[in-house]
Specification:
The chain has 497 residues and is α+β, with helices and mostly antiparallel strands. The chain has 14 helices and 17 strands. The strands form five sheets. A five-stranded antiparallel β-sheet has the order 5-6-12-10-11. Strands 1-2-4-3 form a four-stranded mixed β-sheet, with no helix packed on it. Helix 3 packs across helix 11, helix 11 crosses helix 14 and helix 12 crosses helix 14.
């Protein structure tokens, strides 16, 4: 029996509630949308499941690969013949321990954690708002930006070692520049405690928005990016964004026009804000581009997707980016989640939908008037597509809006639940009071045992109190269950009348 068959049996026996999938393309779980199938892909829901799963994997002779959000991860197209464990799917719990301390699982996204802290009036994670990835990965590499680092807020890390689970202090974590004691070791980060500073939520939000604005101004977030791969230097640095097939497609500073197909742009944008338009109007240049794409400029162009140009992942991504710029739109996530690609050409729409499906997306299609529309309504799918086409900032905005909605909905649910409990308590107290009054009117109250009579008089005296509060008023005090038992006896006596 091979290792994954053994693992299947053990998971069914010891972790029946945990989700584990077979032969899953990792291109669906990486930001670059690349990667062949994982033999097994597991989604632990909490730390306990992850620890048990690691032990089961060891007993089957397989070394798992830990996966967070899958940001900036390069996976072989041949796939991974191992167990891949993704923490970012369900292992995302976070709670506030005291006025300044949060405890969170390793799979929570830094963006979500920063928003949670802001909503609870805790400052210190503003720098993390724009960093992709999970808390576990951020701790391993001591992630940071704009003068902030994880070591400034992390006070304790819980990690799984070969010998068992252990808690590390900040000193023992040995945070350094983009590294820690957990990097390049067998340690698996399970979660951490973070000490933050109380502050006004509105002020925290302004700082987060300011940092995000600075990030958008200084970095080409509209293009695919693998993030920073340098160490800070006192020397000036230049940057370029690579496009498909080794060509450079962007222009990042006025006065320094990039070349596309070895040609200069005929028109550059007049301003550096808003939509930047780089134009080529010279007919000979256009013919040269069309020739390099494999078309004959003397013939009519057919409205089909040329899949021969889309064999490489980078070319597919560039094509989808152009399709979105030509006919795409995203609804305000505060209202609802909706992204669509609109075109008047039905065959081209079907072919784009087929391309999206092949890349691991799940598009829906509909005819609307004279247009063919490809659309997505799941927030996770919209985030993934925006990240793929080079709009991670927009994807983060959707994540933030989703977290805000979840927090508001949670507060509303808690308020509704509290109100329902209050109404239930009032109804029960009214029923008890009416029953006691009937006993009193019929002269039965005085003939009841002393304890029941005391309970009845307390209810008449304090009709607004809960059972717990009435129990404390008794002499001597009793438990809530005892008080509930006495009230049931009173109701039974009243029914006999």
């Amino acid at each position: 029996m091979c290792w994954y068959e053994q693992l299947d049996e053990k998971v069914r026996e010891y972790l029946p509630d945990m989700t584990m999938e077979r032969e899953v393309p990792l291109s669906r779980h990486t930001s670059f949308r690349i990667g062949g199938p994982a033999r097994r892909l597991a989604f632990p829901a909490n730390r306990e499941q992850l620890v048990i799963l690691m032990g089961l994997a060891e007993s089957c002779g397989v070394k798992p690969f830990l996966l967070g959000r899958g940001t900036n991860l390069l996976v072989d197209d041949r796939g991974l013949d191992t167990l891949v464990i993704k923490t970012a799917e369900h292992m995302t719990a976070v709670r506030q321990l005291d006025e300044v301390t949060l405890e969170a699982d390793a799979g929570i996204l830094l963006n979500h954690l920063a928003v949670y802290a802001q909503q609870h009036g805790l400052s210190g994670l503003e720098f993390a708002h724009g960093i992709p990835g999970t808390l576990g990965g951020a701790i391993c590499m001591n992630a940071g930006a704009y003068g902030g680092e994880m070591r400034q807020v992390v006070t304790e890390v819980t990690a799984l070692l070969p010998e068992g689970v252990r808690r590390f202090t900040a000193e023992e974590a040995a945070f350094g520049y983009r590294r820690s004691a957990f990097l390049d070791t067998e340690a698996v980060v399970l979660g951490a405690k973070l000490r933050l500073t109380p502050d006004d939520p509105a002020a925290i939000r302004r700082r987060m928005d300011d940092l995000m604005a600075r990030r958008r101004q200084s970095q080409p977030l509209e293009y695919p990016s693998a993030g920073s791969t340098f160490k800070r230097s006192r020397w000036p640095m230049t940057a370029a964004a690579p496009g498909g097939c080794g060509r450079t497609w962007g222009c990042f500073r006025r006065g320094y026009p990039q070349r596309a197909f070895g040609l200069k742009f005929d028109r550059l944008p007049e301003e550096e804000r808003g939509k930047l338009i780089f134009g080529i109007t010279d007919r000979s240049k256009l013919d040269r581009i069309i020739n390099q794409l494999g078309y004959d400029p003397r013939q009519n162009l057919v409205l089909h997707v040329n899949f021969g140009l889309l064999e490489d992942e980078c070319c597919r991504t560039a094509f989808l980016r152009g399709a979105f710029l030509a006919g795409g739109s995203v609804t305000d996530p505060e209202k609802r989640y909706h992204l669509e690609l609109d075109t008047g050409h039905a065959q081209a729409s079907r072919e784009v939908a087929a391309l999206l499906t092949e890349m691991g997306f799940l598009p829906h299609s509909v005819r609307r008037g004279g247009s063919s529309v490809i659309y997505f309504k799941q927030s996770e799918h919209i985030e993934d597509l925006l990240t793929t086409i080079g709009a991670p900032a927009a994807a983060m905005d959707i994540m933030t809006a989703k977290v805000d909605k979840e927090i508001r909905n949670g507060a509303n649910r808690a308020m509704n639940c509290d109100m329902a409990n209050v109404n239930k308590t009032i109804d029960a107290a009214l029923e008890q009071k009416n029953a006691i009054q009937r006993l009193q009117e019929n002269g039965r109250l005085e003939r009841l045992p002393e304890k029941l009579r005391q309970t009845a008089l307390l209810r008449l005296q304090y009709p607004e109190m809960s059972l717990s509060q009435l129990a404390e008023k008794c002499d001597p005090p009793v438990t809530k269950s005892c008080m509930n038992h006495r009230m049931r006896k009173l109701l039974e006596e009243a029914k006999k009348l």
